[in-house]
Specification:
3 domains; 571 residues; Rossmann fold; 6-stranded mixed β-sheet; BirA Bifunctional Protein, domain 2
Length: 571
């Protein structure tokens, strides 16, 4: 990678004003700093400064993958539709899968991920347990036809991703590879200067039973997390805990109470004078197979859409017409006396509760003292709620804290989901054909770039960590073309380059204010400012971009002073 560049030659068209469409700091600053440019919705070009940082992130990833024995390769971006039909994902993936046809009307997908391709690749090549485990990876563009591409590099239709796939003979071997990848992913985040939490996650369209994603903490993150000082962390879509509930009023006998117009949890709780978690929230929905369902959760919690989807498929809440047809009344639905043909599914946290306050399936009436087993029968107990701040940590019981995060990477144990579907087997030590036990592991490279900027910025611009900064030092001469500052600037650049530092020289004939503003906006970690007075006194002013600290350093010591700080900070 080139270690020295002049601003006058650099393609980095900075902007003075914030772009109107940019909502996140990373989107706004990467555009303003001349690092990315929008081609179309969800499609961005990476300009030279951003591309240098991308390459550094990729180098960190390659270093960590090599350390755990993963082998880099490349497969086609285009995947034949037949492979997606084999795995069952052609239809299941949904409209986000970019489908195209060639001139022969053969269907292909632009890969959002490549489980099918890698499984098909190895199924005729890895034939014996002696060849396992084997982990292959690539760094490649991926495509997802997002309905609403937004937030710059965070949710695009084309993005850069590292995806790895492991093939093991035993669960023990898969677990070992999985743990190696997880540990490597933690190191990648740390080396890129990102504070990230490993959180329990839902596996989504990838599938599999075990998944952890690394979330870069950011106020603007799309994902909502819960975490605890004991080390537990989870996406609220996947978190599970024992939600505390309150028993209803009365002596535990079933009583019907007139509650005119009280169709909300808040009103019912206020009417009876107890917390909202003493009520039971009933939601009527239609499962993917057409079954009518009433799902009941504690009154102060919400039904978790992801958990509900796992149970009910592509469900939807009943419309007013569907409620009327089912014999249910909005705001007054409950488990006692449900019409026939309705499946009752209740949250696990309610299993031990014996005095429910709930709708009476009659307009303007609620029951108190409803008891499962005595007054109604629960068809299934399940984990239904979205965990929230203040709920007890499932590991230590302390109140959970909440945060928002940006998913930068995720690891999955796939088991035999793809190998069984696609007939990918190996011969074990007894010669018996068995399906591979697979894992997959993805890092959003372009997302990581954006996540770094989300965590490292201030009101003036980006503040790159040394490890992924486009350059490490920016030399800012306040006079250009003169016989005092210019030759000193050239000498300092030569000495910095000779010290193996990456240097950007602002040789533009611009006012000092413009140079300072651009230097802070672009965010190179160290700025060497050279003015006539300082040069005359034999010193340079060195500014640390992250902290704003300024130091006077003798000109002949600038290279060594910076080397002592930059080199240890490299990834």
């Amino acid at each position: 990678m080139k270690r020295y560049e002049k601003m006058s030659r650099l393609y980095a068209p900075t902007l003075k004003e914030d772009p109107v469409e940019a909502e996140l700091a990373s989107h706004r600053l990467l555009l303003r700093a001349g690092m990315i440019r929008k081609t179309a919705a969800g499609l961005y070009s990476y300009l030279p400064l951003a591309w240098r940082s991308i390459r550094k992130i990729e180098a960190v990833i390659r270093d960590e993958m090599e350390a755990i024995g993963a082998q880099e390769m490349m497969v086609p971006i285009l995947t034949p539709a037949e492979l997606w039909h084999e795995s069952g994902r052609w239809d299941a993936y949904g409209p986000e899968l970019m489908r195209i046809s060639d001139r022969h009307d053969r269907a292909f997908a632009l890969g959002p991920t490549h489980e099918e391709t890698f499984t098909d690749l190895v199924k005729n090549e890895l034939r014996s347990y002696k060849q396992l485990p084997c982990t292959l990876y690539q760094i490649q563009d991926k495509f997802r036809d997002e309905m609403r591409p937004r937030f710059g590099l965070m949710r695009g239709r084309e993005f850069i991703m590292k995806d790895a796939y492991s093939f093991s003979a035993t669960q023990e071997s898969l677990q070992e590879v999985y743990e190696d990848q997880k540990a490597a992913y933690a190191r990648v985040a740390e080396r890129c200067g990102i504070r990230a939490l490993p959180v329990v996650a839902d596996s989504g369209q990838i599938g599999g039973d075990t998944s952890v994603e690394f979330m870069a903490l950011a106020d603007a993150g799309e994902a909502e997390l819960v975490w605890c000082d004991c080390g537990f962390a989870a996406d609220v879509e996947a978190a599970s805990t024992s939600v505390p509930v309150t028993e209803g009023p009365g002596d535990g006998t079933l009583q019907k109470v007139h509650t005119p117009g009280l169709g909300s949890i808040e009103d019912v709780a206020a009417f009876f004078g107890f917390p909202e978690n003493g009520t039971r929230k009933s939601l009527a929905l239609v499962a993917e197979d057409g079954t009518r369902v009433v799902a009941i959760v504690p009154g102060d919690h919400e039904l978790n859409d992801i958990k509900a989807s796992h149970l009910f498929g592509a469900y939807h809440l009943m419309s007013d017409e569907e409620l009327e047809e089912a014999g249910l009344f909005k705001g007054f639905i409950g488990p006692v006396g449900l019409p026939e043909g309705i499946r009752l599914v209740c949250d696990e946290s309610l299993r031990q509760s014996t005095s429910w306050t709930c709708g009476a399936n009659e307009v303007d009436y609620h029951f108190t003292g409803a008891c499962p087993g005595r007054d109604f029968t629960v068809d299934e107990w399940a984990d239904l709620v979205s965990v929230r701040e203040g709920d007890p940590c499932p590991h230590c019981g302390a109140p959970l804290k909440s945060a928002r995060g940006i998913e930068i990477s995720q690891v999955f144990q796939l088991g035999t989901k793809y190998s069984e579907a696609m007939g990918a087997t190996f011969a074990d030590e007894n010669g018996v054909e068995r399906p591979f036990l697979m894992g997959c592991y993805g890092i959003g490279v372009s997302r990581t770039l954006a996540a770094v900027v989300e965590q490292h910025n201030d009101e003036h611009g980006i503040s790159w960590p040394v490890c992924v900064a486009p350059y490490e030092v920016e030399v800012v001469p306040l006079a250009v073309g003169d016989d005092v500052v210019t030759p000193v600037a050239e000498r300092v650049v030569e000495e910095l380059s000779a010290a193996d530092l990456e240097v950007l020289l602002d040789d533009r004939k611009e006012r000092p204010g413009v140079k300072f503003a651009d230097a802070d906006l672009i965010g190179i970690p160290y700025q060497v400012i050279l003015g006539k007075r300082g040069v005359a006194n034999g010193v340079a002013e060195v500014k640390v971009r992250e902290t704003g600290e300024r130091f006077e350093v003798p000109l002949d010591e600038v290279a060594s002073w910076l080397s002592e700080r930059v080199v240890p900070a490299r990834a």
